[in-house]
Write a structure and sequence with these properties.
One of its GO terms (cellular component) is cAMP-dependent protein kinase complex. It holds the Pfam family Pkinase. GO terms for molecular function: ATP binding; cAMP-dependent protein kinase activity. Residues 1-90 form the Protein kinase domain. This is Protein kinase domain-containing protein. The chain has helices at 6-22, 37-46, 57-66, 80-85, 95-99, 117-120, 123-133. By secondary structure, the protein is mainly α. It contains 7 helices and no strands. 8% of the residues are buried. Helix content is 42%, strand content 0%. Helix 1 runs antiparallel to helix 3. The protein folds into 2 domains: 1-92, Transferase(Phosphotransferase) domain 1 (Transferase(Phosphotransferase), domain 1, Orthogonal Bundle); 94-151, no CATH class.
Amino acid sequence: MHGHGLSSDWWGFGCLLYELVMGSPPFFMKQTNDQSDDALYQMIQTNAVEFPLSVSSELKDFITQLLVKDYTKRLGHKHGFDEIASHSWFTGVDWLGLLMKKIPSPLKIISATNFDKEFIGNTQSVQDFIARRGWENAYPDPWKYTDWDYP
């Protein structure tokens, strides 16, 4: 038996994004006594994801590509995050500014006590992402803050 790879995480991201936007999971059935997890599994394996008309074509395409059932054809399988970030739904996103923390967050975090430092301080993957694009000298090092620290 084989474990899962990053493509499974992109699938999960697609499910999460769908639920955040639509308010329900992409594959949902009300459980009754005669239904089982097998029925839900069968639905995931065979049914297409449905979207309301109000969803933009870019978002629909993005989520649909994340939820492709054949993981080898799923968005992100071949080139990881680079493939995800290049999707048209992200048109206009200043990835470098985001990585360098130059874009103000619409959410203001009052306290970081509920965040594990292990997940907040993953600088190596960010540095690799920046290096692949040749952005090393575009901004000062974002990880050398003098005005903020973990509480």
